[in-house]
Amino acid sequence: MSHPPKPAPRHSASLIVLRDGTEGLEVLMLRRAERSGDQNSGAAVFPGGHLDRADVRAHPLCIGWTDVQASRRLGITDGGLDYWVAAIRECFEESGMLLAVDAQGRWADPAALGDAAAVMALRQRLNDGAIDIASVCQQHGWRLATDRVQYFSHWLTPPGRPKRFDTRFLVAIAPPGQHASADETESAEAMWLKPAEALSAQRQLKLMLVTEETLRSLARFEHAADVIAFAAQQGDVPLTMPRIGSSTGGMRPVLPAHWAYAEIGRLDPDGRGDVGIELVPGRAVRLSPRIVRVTAGNGSVMTGPGTNSYFVGDPGGPCALIDPGPDDAAHVQALLAAAPGPVTRILVTHTHKDHSPAAQALKAATGAPLCGRVADFPEWQDRAFEPDTALAHGERIQLGPETTLRVIHTPGHASNHLCYLLEQERLLFTGDHLMQGSTVVINPPDGDMRAYLQSLRALLDEYLEWLAPGHGFLIDRPHDVVRKTIAHRLQREAKVLAAIDQLGRGNIDALLPVVYADVPPKLHAVAARSLRAHLLKLQADGRADESNGQWSLRG
Predict the structure, then answer these.
(1) How many other CB atoms are found less than 10 A from the CB of residue 284?
(2) Which of 384, 399, 430, 552 could crosslink 403 through cysteines, CB 3.0-4.6 Å?
């Protein structure tokens, strides 16, 4: 069966025009004209549109940027200056504001083109392609003020949409003395709005996701010049491509910051929009031919959306169950119903009470042996867990001809913590060694911050492509996550040292609000456990001493 060709994204440019109003930064918004069949009819947008083949003719009339420089700024081989030209041209077509200067460097006056009707007619001819912007400038001795325009952001429409746009957003300050007006064809109204006002529910503007997110970015700035300075100084501009996921409310766009973003890309590269963006307790989710995930209904502040259990095995063959989860009857029944084949092993990452207690019920139901390790200290542990097989670091578990797990001992969060590497997919089942959206608690004596950092660093030597955490969705770019986690822990350690230095000496109660000032007080009782772990590490490193509960810097 043949499939229709996927639509190629159309290259577009949009110009974010700013000014300083009496109450701060304002941005030019255009309300799109109402058109049948256009899902974005009536939406408030920034001026912009497609690149035109004739835009290249204006390159010699551009100030400040060459095509080589503009292309380098956008990260493309050539044609970069077309985006600057298109942004200025589209802005003039749709709003009547023209970023051009005369031979003396003074701002061009669109009124020189004739009366209002003549200017509107010229804008329409530009829109229709009957004339190009280079011809307009040559006729009046103008040059495009591309030197006043900076690159701001890059957005790509999600795959699977009937129309896709690869759009570069540029930013400029409005030419003084010029007035914006709708073209009465593509735009029905021109508005100067503060970004927060445009976002407010009271204004009731229809906003596309890219517009809404751009307004949120602009709302951080007080003045137009601040935005220009930011755009000029930022380094490589990342591509933002939303993806489409499925929720209880239907399909919705998902941004890269959303927990489900990477998983959607793995499971739905073509943009069908049927991958869930919520972890629903009891729902079986097929993550690959080898992996099925079921999430327990034990979501909380400590467990996030709930504890994940994973079935792993060859398609249609026997499988292992990683982390049976809490001893909850509904969860146990959901696991038994979701098993893709006979369960021949039950593996645990560690024996905290949200990960292993269901092992007893599942062993009784399946006859599968328990595999894992016993913690060095019993506090906070599932004391009923006794492995039939104690697993060793580096041990390989052959689940089928095409499925192999390698055991990696990762002490730190717990002394008996194990991760399991699915070698065929370079996917690491992380338990609580790495979590999504938060850092794990290190709770002495079984938790050890020094061991935790060593375990993290050891993962940098592994070839990894995906993380399957004990809480959350699949995570891509594993080494970036590991490095970020290490950096976070070392930054927190630096705060501990600074707090001790500031106080001279202090107990955990005195240090806690200083070291964890960025954490809500309701979480300080939990944070105190990790603070103690940091202090014990500093003591082992020879950098801090404790006497009668008071901590001080050594030397």
Answers:
(1) 16
(2) 399
Residues near 415 by Cβ (< 8 Å), separated by ≥ 6? 375, 376, 377, 446, 447, 448, 451
* pLDDT tens digits, 372-415: 999 999 988 999 999 999 999 999 999 999 999 999 999 999 99
CA distance 528 to 114: 72
pLDDT at 1 over 70: no
Return d(Cα 294, Cα 283) in angstroms, integer.
Answer: 6
pLDDT in tens, 41-64: 889 999 999 999 999 999 999 999
Confidence of residue 110 (pLDDT cuts 50, 70, 90): confident
Q: What is the pTM of this model?
A: 0.91
Per-residue pLDDT band for 425 (boundaries 50, 70, 90) equals very high
Residue with tokens 């020094």: 450
With vertex at residue 274, the alpha carbon angle to CA 154 and CA 204, rounded to the nearest 5 degrees, is: 55
Q: What is the pLDDT of residue 4?
A: 54
DSSP code string of 223-234: SHHHHHHHHHH-
* Cα–Cα distance for residue pair 262/279, rounded to 1 Å: 14
| Amino acid 162: pLDDT | 87
Amino acid at 423: E
Helix ranges (H only) for 129-259 are: 133-140, 195-199, 209-218, 224-233
Instruction: Tell me how far apart the alpha carbons of residues 438 and 441 are, in angstroms, rounded to a whole number.
Output: 9
Beta bridge partners of 547: 550
| CA quadruple 514, 515, 520, 522: dihedral sign | negative
pLDDT of residue 114: 82
Nearest alpha-carbon partner for 224 in 499, 430, 24, 15: 24
Contacts of 292 (CB under 8 A, 6+ apart): 284, 285, 286, 310, 311, 338, 339, 340
- Looking at the predicted structure, is the pLDDT value of residue 227 above 70? yes
Phi first, then psi: give them for residue 264, nearest 5 degrees: -60, -45
DSSP structure class, residue 132: -
- Among candidates 302, 340, 322, which has minimal Cα distance to 430? 322
Burial of 217-250, coded b for 16+ CB within 10 Å and e otherwise, reads ebbebeebeebbebbeeeeebeebbbbbbbeeee
pLDDT digits 0-9 by tens, 353-377: 999 999 999 999 999 999 999 999 9
Work out the end-to-end distance of the chain between its first and last CA atoms, rounded to an integer number of angstroms.
75
Identify whether the C-beta of residue 173 lies closer than 8 Å to the C-beta of residue 224.
yes
pLDDT, average across residues 127-149: 94
Quote the radius of gyration of the chain (alpha carbons, Å). Answer: 29
Q: Are 63 and 85 in contact (CB under 8 A)?
A: no
Q: Looking at residue 40, what is its pLDDT? A: 74
Beta strands, E only, 174-215: 187-193
Which residues lie below 8 Å from residue 234, measured CB to CB, with a gap of 6+?
none
